[in-house]
Amino acid sequence: MSFPIYTKTGDAGETALFGGKRVPKSHLRVDAYGTVDELNSFIGLLHDALESESIRQLLVQVQHRLFSIGAYLASDPEKQMARVDLERNDLKILEDTMDMMDGQLPDLKNFILPGGHPTVSLCHVCRTVCRRAERLIVALHQESPVDPLVLQYMNRLSDYFFMLARYLCKEAGAPEILWVAREKQH
After folding, report:
1. CATH assignment of 15-75+83-185, given 3.40.710.10, 3.10.20.340, 1.20.1200.10, 1.10.10.10?
2. Hey, which bits of 88-155 come out as E strands?
3. Residue 125's pLDDT is what?
4. pTM (global) more than 0.85
């Protein structure tokens, strides 16, 4: 059995949450899980651009966690739905990986601009989309409680993409592009 690709039920600008409740497609909950889906797509693009198998494996793990977060956010909060598939260890994996990368990088003494290498730029796209998803989830949390582990994971994940950008920049032998204030450019 396959799922129909088009149902025509959203033609009037509404969609159904898991549990059946219909909401406008502009609803904050839809924006939040849609942005998580967007992030997941950019992570797939980053994954496909990388050669490092260990980084690729971690990115696939992250994609699985994000899919679970998206399903959790797409659920009607008024119904008892399954809990999000996140564990404290998922945070620890990101933190340990960031610590490992940080130990191999020079101290950060300036702000850096996105760019320098295509994979570095993709990391920054993932970071910024992750931050947007986090902001939307925080806004949703102010209306309807969200599992605190989701908030923590999204915060840590954006930090991970920043560190991964710096790490990949070093691995590629590309210089980090330092931000310089206008008055110091002359």
Report:
1. 1.20.1200.10
2. 112-113
3. 98
4. yes
